[in-house]
Every structure is written in C-alpha cells, then in structure tokens.
C-alpha cells in the first residue's frame, strides 16, 4: 500500500494526463435543415452520428455520418440539404397568380380578373412532399339576371342573350316607346356585384303648339299638344330663304328644338358696271330682276390704279344687305356708254 501511495505522489502529472487525454464532443452545430437522431448534449470519442434531412428537404452531398474524435471535434462533412421543389403552377383561366419561388414552404396567391369570382382556395403552399397544398382554383364569371324593363320601355343588348342570365360586362341600351321619353342613363350594364345598373324611367312628354316664324309658315296649326319626337315643318314666303333646320322636333324637356328663320333677298346696289354671279359675267342692266338670295355671293370689279389693271372683289348677301366693296367706283355715264372697254372688268386683270 505504501508503495502505490509513493508512486502516486511521485508521478501525479503522468496519471492526470492519462485520464484526461480522451475528450468528449458537444452536440454538433449543423445546418438548421439537418436532423441528428439523438437529443443528448455530450458524446464520447468514437460515437458515430447518422445525419438526415428534415421533412421538405433533400440531401445533395455526403458523407451522411460524423464521428466524435478524441480531440473533441467531429469529423468533417459536406452533407447539405436543399428544399424540395414543387411543380411550376398554372394560372387559372381568367385569373392571375403571384409567387416568388416554388421551393418548400413557398406560397402562391390567386386572384381573378374583374367580373369573375374565385372558387377554391386563394392560396396554396408548397408541402414537404413536393406537392401544392391546394389545387388551382377556378375563376367563375359573375352573372346577373335579366335587367328590369321600365314601363313603356324596352332594352336592346349589345350581344345575343339566351335564357334568364347574363354575363358580367354585357350592356344594353334602354329605349322608350313614343310618346314616352327616357329619364336616366340609357346604358345598362351587368356589374361585378351581380346586379344591373340603375333602371331609367319612361315618362310621357308633350309640347304645346309653337309660334310661327316671321315671314314664314308652319305645316300645321292644330291647337293641340304634340307628343315627344313629333315634328313640325317650316317654310318661308316669297323670296325669303330658310336658315336652319326646316323641321323642329318636340324634345325630352317638353320644348321644341330651335326654329329656323327666314332671310331676305338683296338688291345689288350699283347702276353701271359688270357683275359676276354664279359663274356668269353680265352687265348690271341685263341682270333682271336685280335680286340675289340670302348667302349668295356676287363679285364686282375694282381698278388697281398703280398697275393699271382690274380685279374682282366678292361680297355676300346677308339677310337683305349686300355691301358694295369700298374699292368699287361707279363709272361716269360717258365712260360707261362710250368707253366701256376701259372699265376695270374689261381691261387686263391683275
């Protein structure tokens, strides 16, 4: 006993070194996607651990085991796990999808275009088995029933309609049967809410007998009320010309459309000289009767004294007034009778 005690006292360093030369290993620090089969925190030298991938991940390199060495470190490994891929998704007809990736735990968001309702899940997640959690949803067209028809009215669709339903976006135009007038929006549409836009009304509209126009006459003098869209025609007496529409119509607000007016003819206010009227060049005394109608154009001749040449100037009859251009000079009786060849209309033109 004393001998062993003496040896222990003489060689304490050797004994301690022998006991502590083999170190254990702490639990390995691995990628978050890698699984280790056991849960303990410390491992003896020589212990071998099997590595595997968590659900949703696939191994891409090895080795798949590590060993605790006597130095307290684990053997090296290039073992990696990559996320599993799901197939590229399809867009639903009349819809759209939004996603950033197709790897495990990625999410797809589905939406439908305007006028369509989503049938199915609006989201889908890439699962651990490489499939999507939900099938592609459907985008079902929004429909409306047939639109209400106002009393004394009708609707004309922009496309053919069959049955008792109409698809989103279909439009129609309301019309009223005379003598009823439409009050409200004439265009109807099947909306995203599955209802039609507001229905207009058909109301009876009448107009009282209008007044006659100056120097004119009407096609009727019936002392009665005239229905919406009824018409009356106007004319002018004598040589007066109608300016505006020959016909007025009873409007939706119970008033008549704008009435025409009768415009007077004009006399050409020169006594000597030539005129140009409707392509004909003639002496004023031969122009009988001396009268042109409202908006008719007449030309007279003026003299360019500097260049000794003549030129024509046009003027227009406006409701009985025809202004003679200031440049026009009435020739003297002698020049007009004996020397008409010297008049601006007869000499060389500028």
UniProtKB/TrEMBL annotation:
It is found in: Membrane; Secreted; Virion. PROSITE patterns: SUSHI. Its main location: membrane. The keyword Glycoprotein applies. One of its GO terms (molecular function) is heparin binding. One of its GO terms (cellular component) is extracellular region. Keywords: Disulfide bond, Glycoprotein, Heparin-binding, Membrane, Repeat, Secreted, Signal, Sushi. SMART domains: CCP. Pfam families: Sushi, Sushi_2. Residues 23-83, 84-141, 142-204, 205-264 form the Sushi domain. Residues 1-22 form the signal peptide. Disulfide bonds join 25-68, 112-139, 207-250. InterPro entries: ComplSys_Reg/VirEntry_Med (IPR051503), Sushi/SCR/CCP_sf (IPR035976), Sushi_2 (IPR015104), Sushi_SCR_CCP_dom (IPR000436). PANTHER family: COMPLEMENT FACTOR H-RELATED. Binds to various kinds of negatively charged substances such as heparin, phospholipids, and dextran sulfate. May prevent activation of the intrinsic blood coagulation cascade by binding to phospholipids on the surface of damaged cells. This is Beta-2-glycoprotein 1. The lineage of its organism: Eukaryota, Metazoa, Chordata, Craniata, Vertebrata.
């Amino acid at each position: 006993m004393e001998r062993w005690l003496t040896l222990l006292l003489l060689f304490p360093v050797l004994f301690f070194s022998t006991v502590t030369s083999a170190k254990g290993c702490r639990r390995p620090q691995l990628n978050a996607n890698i699984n280790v089969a056991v849960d303990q925190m410390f491992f003896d030298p020589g212990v071998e651990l099997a590595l595997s991938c968590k659900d949703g991940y696939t191994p891409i390199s090895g080795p798949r085991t590590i060993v605790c060495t006597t130095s307290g470190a684990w053997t090296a490994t290039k073992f990696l796990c990559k996320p599993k891929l799901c197939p590229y998704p399809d867009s639903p007809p009349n819809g759209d999808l939004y996603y950033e990736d197709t790897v495990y735990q990625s999410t797809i968001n589905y939406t439908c275009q305007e006028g369509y309702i989503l049938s199915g899940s609006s989201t889908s997640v890439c699962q651990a088995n490489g499939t999507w959690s939900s099938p592609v949803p459907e985008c079902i067209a929004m429909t409306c029933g047939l639109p209400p028809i106002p009393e004394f009215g009708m609707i004309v669709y922009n496309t053919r309609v069959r049955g008792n339903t109409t698809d989103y976006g279909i439009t129609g135009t309301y019309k009223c049967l005379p003598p009823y007038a439409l009050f409200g929006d004439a265009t109807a549409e099947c909306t995203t809410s599955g209802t039609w836009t507001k229905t207009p009304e058909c109301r009876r509209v009448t107009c009282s007998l209008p007044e006659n126009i100056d120097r004119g006459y009407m096609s009727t003098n019936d002392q009665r009320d005239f229905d919406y869209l009824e018409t009356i025609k106007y004319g002018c007496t004598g040589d007066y010309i109608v300016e505006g529409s020959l016909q007025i119509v009873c409007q939706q607000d119970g008033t008549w459309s704008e009435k025409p007016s009768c415009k007077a003819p004009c006399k050409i206010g020169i006594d000597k000289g030539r005129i140009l009227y409707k392509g004909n060049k003639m002496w004023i005394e031969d122009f009988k009767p001396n009268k042109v109608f409202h908006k008719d154009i007449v030309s007279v001749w003026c003299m360019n004294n500097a260049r000794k040449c003549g030129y024509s100037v046009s003027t227009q009859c406006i409701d009985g007034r025809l202004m003679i251009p200031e440049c026009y000079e009435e020739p003297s009786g002698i020049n007009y009778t004996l020397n008409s060849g010297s008049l601006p209309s007869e000499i060389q033109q500028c």
